[in-house]
C-alpha cells in the first residue's frame, strides 16, 4: 500500500463520537399470528476506526444486527445512528443513496457478476454516481491494487480462485471509500490459509486506512483479527460466549 493510495481512498479522521450508536434496539418479525423478537433491547457503540467481530450461535441475531447497522433492514423499536444519521428516518431513495455513500458490503458468497471482469465488477457501485468512466476506471484500479489484484483486472470471476474473488469483492466494497465495511461471514467459503490472507487484508484496511469494520463470523480464529468481539445469544448481548458456542 502506497501513500498515493492513502490519498485516493482516504484515511478516516479521528472523531470522538461513536460511528455507530445503538440504543434500546429491538427487532421483531411477524410470522403469521406469531411475533418473534430476534433482538432484545440492544445497546452498543462502535467507535470510528474499530474492528468488531459479532459472534454467537446460529439464530442469535448477529446477522440481523449486521443488516440493521448496514441499513438493509429497519428496527422495530429503539434508535440506531451511523455517523449521526438516524437510518430509520430515511425513505427508499435517500436510504439507497446513504448506503451507497457510507457502507461497503462484503458477503460470504462474493456476489460477483460472472460476465464482467474484475475491473468492471469493482466499478459497479460507482455506476450509481455521476462519476465519469475514466474516473470510475481509475478508482477501481486503485482498489484492485490495494487488495493485491492489480494484475488481475481483466480476469473474469471463473478465472480467479475463491480467495481472489473475495478480494475483488473487498475492492468493490472499498471503491466508493465508505465509512463502514459490513462483512457477513467473509471467509466462510475459504480454506484456513486463504481465510487468514483475507482477514489479514481486512486488518490492514482497518489499521492503515482507519476503516471501521463490523464482521459477523462463527470462526473464533477469524475473530482474533478484530480489535473487539461482541457476543450475542438469543438476541441479547452477553459478556462471554455461553457453553463455548460461537
TrEMBL record:
Annotated CDD domains: ABC_MJ0796_LolCDE_FtsE
Q: Where is the ABC transporter domain?
A: 20-246
Q: Does the keyword DNA repair apply?
A: no
Q: Name one GO molecular function term.
A: ATP binding
GO cellular component terms, semicolon-separated: plasma membrane; transmembrane transporter complex
Sorted alphabetically, which InterPro entries does this protein's record hold? AAA+_ATPase (IPR003593), ABC_transporter-like_ATP-bd (IPR003439), ABC_transporter-like_CS (IPR017871), ABC_transpr_LolD-like (IPR015854), MacB-like_ATP-bd (IPR017911), P-loop_NTPase (IPR027417)
Keywords in UniProt for this one? ATP-binding, Nucleotide-binding, Transport
Q: Which Gene3D superfamilies match?
A: P-loop containing nucleotide triphosphate hydrolases
Record SMART domains? AAA
Q: Which family does it belong to?
A: Belongs to the ABC transporter superfamily. Macrolide exporter (TC 3.A.1.122) family.
- Name this polypeptide is given: Putative ABC transport system ATP-binding protein
Tell me the organism.
Answer: Aerolutibacter ruishenii
